[in-house]
Amino acid sequence: MRPAAIQLLATLLLVLSVSQARCDVYSWVDENGIRHFSNVSLPYGKKATQIPESVSSTIDKSNFTVTKVFDGDTVQVQGQDLEFRIRMVAIDAPETGGSRKKGQPYAQKAKKVLQQLIQGKKVRLKQYGTGGYNRILAEIFSQGRNINLTMIRQGLAEVYRGRLPQTLDSDSYNKAQDDARRRGRGMWSQGKAYKSPKIWRKENPW
Cα torsion at 182, 183, 188, 190 (round to 10°)? Predict the structure, then answer.
C-alpha cells in the first residue's frame, strides 16, 4: 500500500474514545499484494477481515473520485486505495423507489443533475461521522462549490428533517431552501402536492 494511503488510513481509523462515529471497515489484499480498505461491502470472491473502528473527520482536504451516483443524495467515491459510500449530509432528495416502487416526482431529475455535477470528477469531502447503512455523512465540494447546497438551491433536495451535526452551518441550508421554495424551483413547483421524502418513506416502507 502506498505511503499516502497508509497516512490517510491512520487518520481515518481512530479508537472509539476519540470519535462517536462508528463505521465497519473491511480489509483485504488483492492479487498484486495491495491492501484495500472499504466501508461499502465485502469484495466478491475475496476473503476479508472486518475491522470495526471509528471514523474521524480528518478525511477533509483529501481528493476522491465519484465513481457512482445512486440517487440525489448518495454517492460512492474512491481514492488512494480507499472506497466509501457517502450520504450527503443535511439534505434529503426525493426517493427513487428502487426497483420495486415508482418513486417520487423529481427523484430521477435529482439523480441526473447530481451525476452531471460530480460523476467521474474529483471532489473534496467534509465529513460529519457516519449515518445509517454504514455510510459516511459528508458535504461534497467540487471546484469550490458546495454540492449539497447546490442540490438544495436547485429545488432537488430538502433540508434533512432530523438531527443535524452541531458543527454544520444549518442556516445556509435553511436559507437556500426558503429561496428555492419561494421561487418554485424543482420539486417545490408541485405546491401543495409536494411530499417530503421522510413522509414518503413512512408511507412506502422497503
Answer: 110
Catalytic residue among 135, 139, 153, 158: 135
Q: Could you give the 3-state DSSP secondary structure of residue 146? A: strand
- Amino acid at the residue 129: G
**pLDDT mean across residues, the chain:** 82
Q: Which of 83, 87, 139, 158 is catalytic?
A: 87
Query: Using alpha carbons only, how large is the chain's radius of gyration in Å?
Result: 18
Is 182 tagged catalytic? no
Let me know if 95 is a catalytic residue: yes
Tell me which CATH code domain 3-191 carries: 2.40.50.90
pLDDT-derived band at 17, boundaries 50, 70, 90? very low
**Cβ contact 22:34 at 8 Å:** no
Catalytic residue among 53, 83, 95, 158: 95
pLDDT tens, residue by residue, 187-201: 999 999 999 999 999
* 87: annotated active-site residue: yes
pLDDT tens digit sequence for 117-165: 999 999 999 988 777 776 889 999 999 999 999 999 999 999 999 999 9
Distance CA 146, CA 178 (A): 17
